[in-house]
Amino acid sequence: MIYQTYDLYSRGAEVLNSFYSFGHHVSSHPSNPWASTLTGKTLAAIYESAYRSTKRYHKLGFHYDSVEVNGKSVKVHEHIVADLPFCQLRHFAKEGTHNQPKLLIVSPLSGHHATLLKDTVKSMLADNDVYLTDWKDARDVPAADGQFGFDDYVHYLIDFMEVLGPGCHMLAVCQPTVQALIATGVMAERKHPCLPKTLTLMAGPIDTRINPSSVNDYATKNDLEFFRRNVIKTVPKGYPGAGRKVYPGFLQLSAFVSMNLGNHIRKHLDFFSNVILGNHDDAEAHREFYDEYLAVLDMSADFYLETLERVFIEHHLPTGQIRYQGKPVDFSAITDTALHTVEGARDDICSEGQTEAAQTICTALSDDKRRHKVYKKVGHYGIFSGSKFRRDIARDLSKFIAKHN
Fold first, then answer.
1. Measured CA distances, 148 to 69, 169, 308, 377 (Å)
2. Structural domain of residue 139, as residue ranges?
3. d(C-alpha 149, C-alpha 156), whole Å
4. Cα gap 167→181, rounded to integer Å
5. Residue 231 counted as domain residue
6. Which residues of the chain register pLDDT less than 70?
7. pTM for the whole thing?
8. Which has the closest alpha carbon to 398: 174, 75, 123?
9. How far apart are CA 204 and CA 177, in angstroms?
10. Distance linking the first and last C-alpha atoms of the chain
11. Helix (H) or strand (E) holding 339
12. Are both 52 and 182 inside the same structural domain?
């Protein structure tokens, strides 16, 4: 009944949300003589904070109108080039650019939408022909479309690499570094013509036994049945996926927030002060971040539980137990794909060393096809977004891809 209760509450909160929105509009309107006073600004801050706390956050768009390429503004056109039951493959095509490396960016399926990688995509667009996995909310996928598990994720990546064709590159952020590495191993074994030329793994849980974080500790302290019993819920009526078993996004968001509760409280208090004091840039940055952060999706129960079991509880990948469609994956077959592992020294979700473990798993790669980079003073989200990413990391990634293109 947890999902049903949450759905009832969130729908009911929309009535209050409309009231708070109206209150904010009136209290902050330029024609209101009290709007510029301390009382008026405080009232507007109260109404906006209440409005944001009762709002249902939905997936945002990418909205890239243009990007700068070699000092010139180039128009960007967004297309869906493949549409599978649980994922769409988006292409951000640029006018007048040719022969750039084709790059598949694999977004996480861990509670947030692919739009969390807006910075990643836009920063990589200047030097690459970018495609992105845009995972669908499982509650919107009809039960008739079947289940989606760990192996299905790997299969989707292989399918998408076939869409891009030979000579392409793959970059995975966080959770899908595991599936991206497996897909590359499978394609290498099969001598697949669309094997990626480079594989970049960023801040991912390849071996969570190394410097375990609080996320890793939580997973290992409980067995699979605990998670099946406590976090797997049924999509209620009123959604296309009604009756489907899922790990709800609102539960994942609660877990994310609880990890850094004090930090989130401080940010909201700062936002309240910034609205009153008229610090518009800081207030707008807060809105933009939380509009994205609070928009979540449901994951298929099969995928969530199988990932927990294979990656976080039993560590199949670093212990040589990983299988795809029932067969062991031989990572020594990876000889032609250059591997780049990227970590942040302050990452509190995928700790330093966990992603680098992929270098050990790929035993047959020559030294000239390996690269590992740790960025100091960078946390988990800073690895793929923010000023440091835009200024330094993205440029470094594009250089690696160009070198092996």
1. 38, 25, 14, 37
2. 66-216+299-403
3. 11
4. 17
5. no
6. none
7. 0.92
8. 123
9. 5
10. 52
11. strand 338-344
12. no
